[in-house]
Amino acid sequence: DHVVSDTEKAQLKKDLSHFAFGASPAGKKLAITLLQRLNMHLLAGDGKQADEMLSHNHVEHVLPTNTYRKYWMEQWPDEEMKTMWTHRLGNLALMSRKSTAKESNNVLGEKKERYKKETAPLTNHIGLQIDVWNKFALTENHHKIVDLIGDTWGF
Questions:
Q1: Per-residue model confidence as pLDDT tens digits over 22-74
Q2: How far is the CA of 23 from the CAs of 9, 61, 113, in angstroms?
Q3: What residues does 94 pair with on adjacent strands?
Q4: Whole-angstrom Cα distance, residue 59 to residue 53?
Q5: What share of the chain is helix, strand, coil (3-state, %, to 5)?
Q6: Which of 43, 61, 70, 92 is 20 to 30 A from 109, comparing alpha carbons?
């Protein structure tokens, strides 16, 4: 039996924090599985039925990969910073249906209306609680998710 050391746990947390989940189909599939399980965990903790999360099998970049709209250019003026954060787990929202290209590129105010209707707590939180999707909001959401992974699976 191999016990995972504190060093290995810290490395796993670091790797989860820096991995570009949204950059490839395989990464998105992994992100969907992680976000499904985390949302199921949150729902079960609230005594709610969680099985429906398995039908939530799409992710959307909150900060889009295409940021041509003025809103996104204002919120993310540093191209290097935007590139660094676009595909991280904290920028991915679990969705019950695939977003259209137009929906994916919308500004946060328009996305929030869809996110509020989602039953996934982590996505719903963005719709209800976050007014600006800038570096502060994204990194805060990201660390919340990575910490939740650690709390859920004990590292």
A1: 999 999 999 999 999 999 999 987 777 777 767 778 999 999 998 888 989 99
A2: 24, 10, 25
A3: 59
A4: 12
A5: 65, 5, 30
A6: 43
HSE (side-chain half, CA atoms, 13 Å) at 107:
10
Matching residue, tokens 């729902």? 43
Within a 13 Å sphere around the CA of 115, how many CA atoms are in the beta-carbon half?
A: 27
Number of neighbours of residue 144 by Cβ within 10 angstroms: 13
